[in-house]
From TrEMBL:
SUPFAM superfamilies: Outer membrane efflux proteins (OEP). Gene3D superfamilies: Outer membrane efflux proteins (OEP). InterPro entries: MdtP/NodT-like, OMP_efflux. Pfam families: OEP. This is Efflux transporter, outer membrane factor (OMF) lipoprotein, NodT family. One of its GO terms (molecular function) is efflux transmembrane transporter activity. Belongs to the outer membrane factor (OMF) (TC 1.B.17) family. It comes from the Bacteria. It comes from Chitinophaga arvensicola. NCBIfam families: outer_NodT.
Amino acid sequence: MNKYFSSYALYAAMATITVACSTQKELALPERVPVPVVPANNNDTLSLANFTQVFNDPNLRSLIDTALRNNYDLLSAAQRVATAQANLMMAKNAWLPSLNLSLSAGVDKYSDYSLNGVGNYDTNLSPNISKDQRIPGPTPEYFAGLRSSWEIDLWGKLKSQRQATYARFLASEQGRRLLTTQIVAGVTGLYYELTAMDNELAIIQRNIGLQETAVATVHIQKAGGRATELAVQQFTAQLLSTQALAFGVKQEIASLENQLNALLGRFPQPIVRTVAKDAQALPDAVQKGIPGSLLLQRPDVQQAELELAASKADVKAARAAFLPGLTITPYAGFNAFKAGLLFQSPASIAWGAVGNLTAPIFNKKQIRAQYNISTANAYTAFYGYQQALVNGYQEVASALNKVENQREAYTLKNKEVLVLQEAVSTANLLFTTGYANYLEVITAQKNVLEAELALVTTRRNVYQGMVSLYRALGGN
């Protein structure tokens, strides 16, 4: 018997060593591509200081607070973080032994030609046992006690799984931060769209007033024989076109208000906002260059980096699955084949422990497939991280260029508006004195309206560029 046992132990040990030596090689990812950014001496707070002019509107701040409280996407993201936190709790305690209270009852009818059947028969004939020790047939089985199971983390598999879960928990936090930044940027962008539309509507209504005066003037001149019906029709047509344009802007305002209310998690209602004339100042110029630390603080970049760390830990856990596992399963309690004898201490007390060392052999293809999946996911996470850096760089660069170019365009457009406003005054004066015809007046009024609307659009683009830059830098 000892000979057979020794041979079996030798074969088991050889199989364990063979499996342990056949693990997969460690993960080797490509080199990371360096990102061209400005040196660290370009203070990150320099860029953040510009945003104080964008977010200083009290009405805007109130809307942002409402969105952060009520936005349903953000509320869902908070629940995803809670789910990740629960998964982390499970992973942190996976190395601890399980302990369960066990109450079990069963019955067995052994064959007369089985080991247990013959053994029970002989036992009952023995003069060395008492009446209570006689085994009934069929044989009941009762147990009341504690059972435990403890997986020993020999190769760090549970530790790697815990590291992967922790990284994904942090990634979920970054995902919520990313969504928060997008919501803040979305609310701010729509808010400045609304103020721009308000400004456009005010410009259109002011021009409607000027054109109504022009129509009244041309009617007087027609009555005095100084203008024709054609002039009256042209001025009237221009007035009607501008009045129709006002209704188009009102529709855009209503649509933007509905979009903003949806982002705030509420049904359509009026949006309280600053009057357009109180929001004329442009944000300060942004210094050129992309701060490296701000770029790396983008939530999508940090989320991708954490997902990469989690994928690397998954590969380590998948490698450890090729190695033998040790599980210890102890138990202690009351055990008897008669219910009345179950709690007669100490005779019915039973305890034991089993150490189970297992190594994968025939299911190795499944483990290899899981390792291949983990490796592929790690490469996917690596490429996703690299793409997040590329996306972040181009978004910041585009936003910086947009702010700079639109500021320059605003300066020129502002000069254009001043010139055209003087041209309208000149055209009206020349028309009333007979030195200009009505077409020149209409053209001058049309040009100044278009230039004023273009100036509003350019100013709006400066603010949208700042909002894009805020989002591209990851918010704060």
